Amino acid sequence: MRLILSFFVYGLTIAVIVAVGAGYWAMQEYKKPGPLQQQTVFTVERGQSAGTIAHNLHAQNMISDAFLFRAGLKFLDGNRYLQAGEYRFEPGMSMQEIVAAMQDGQTVQYQFTIPECTTSFEVMNILNDIDMLTGDLDAPPPEGTVYPDTYNYIRGENRTDIVQRMQGIMKQTLAQSWAARKNDNPHIKTPEDALILASIVEKEAGDPKERPRVAGLFLNRLEKGMRLQSDPTVIYGIVDGRPKTGGMGPLGRRILRKDLEFDSPYNTYIYTGLPPGPICNPGKASIQAVLEPEDHDYIYMVADGTGGHAFAKTLREHNNNVAKWRKIRAAQ
């Protein structure tokens, strides 16, 4: 009986040693550098099982053993959910590193940029032209509601979700800028008023440094009861917020004197005060320029041929600046 018991204990001991050794080997295999030889993009589809993912990884020679991958996921990494998405795996990544990347959702990030002064129609086209996004936009978001910036996105992300993200940032930016304003202005009564004028400043200020000065000029004109007489507002009304492409500006040509007579609520040559809404999606700098404008007496401006403007306090001064600009343009 003792002999049988001794053999049993001996056999059990050997089995434990073998099991521990096998477990240790498996753990080392799970953690050691894998067979991947070059950077590779791997996609996890929504709803894929861990078994399917392991099979696909092994088939593409990213891991050495699909069974060990699943075992390590279950016993060493808490069997947490592997997130869907597109991943970029580097040469030699271990199974454990691959699992960690997919559990943490370290998906490949792509970027697109919405420049300042982009209209919402242009925003819609930019997003619809990105093939990796899903859910086409059938209509542009309301003008002025999208914050211009560079954004990250992942393959398969929904366009509407991205628009909502951009709108949330604009809403927050406008609210924070409005709350931080130092002085009230009788002509900028609401955040929406600030957004409208900021969109005009964004379109008019060729040199970003001019924004506070341009904002101050338009506020001076409002204070004097003068019309804003801003060409970009006229153009916005003519194209109905849908600028043409292919050069020569949003009209596809230079603005003409007859255009200034186009009857639109956005035509600030005809109507006094602010237009009914923004004419583009302005950036934070233009919003802040409206809320903290430069203090001066300028009420006129014209292009100076360098990308900026020549400012004037009187019509006589302005006419001289216009004459200079016409000579510059004629020589171009």
Task: Describe this protein with a few key phrases.
332 residues, mainly alpha, Dna Ligase, domain 1, 3 domains, two-stranded antiparallel ribbon, 45% helix, elongated
Describe this structure in words.
- The chain has 332 residues and is mainly α.
- It has helices at 2-31, 50-59, 66-75, 95-103, 120-128, 159-179, 191-204, 211-223, 231-239, 284-291, 315-331; strands spanning 40-44, 85-89, 110-113, 150-153, 300-303, 309-312.
- It folds into 3 domains: 29-103, 2-Layer Sandwich (Dna Ligase, domain 1), CATH 3.30.1490.480; 110-167, no CATH class; 185-331, no CATH class.
- Strand 5 and strand 6 form a beta hairpin.
- It starts with a helix and ends with a helix.
- Residues 7-12 and 15-23 have low confidence and may be disordered.
Silhouette: elongated
Mean pLDDT: 89
What is the CA-atom radius of gyration, in angstroms? Answer: 32 Å
Largest pleated sheet: 2 strands, antiparallel
Number of domains: 3
Note the gap between the termini. Answer: 111 Å
User: How many separate helices?
Assistant: 11
Number of strands: 6
| Classification by helices and strands | mainly alpha
Beta-strand portion reads 5-15%
Low-confidence stretches: 7-12, 15-23
Helix content: 40-55%
Sheet with the most strands: spatial strand order: 1-2
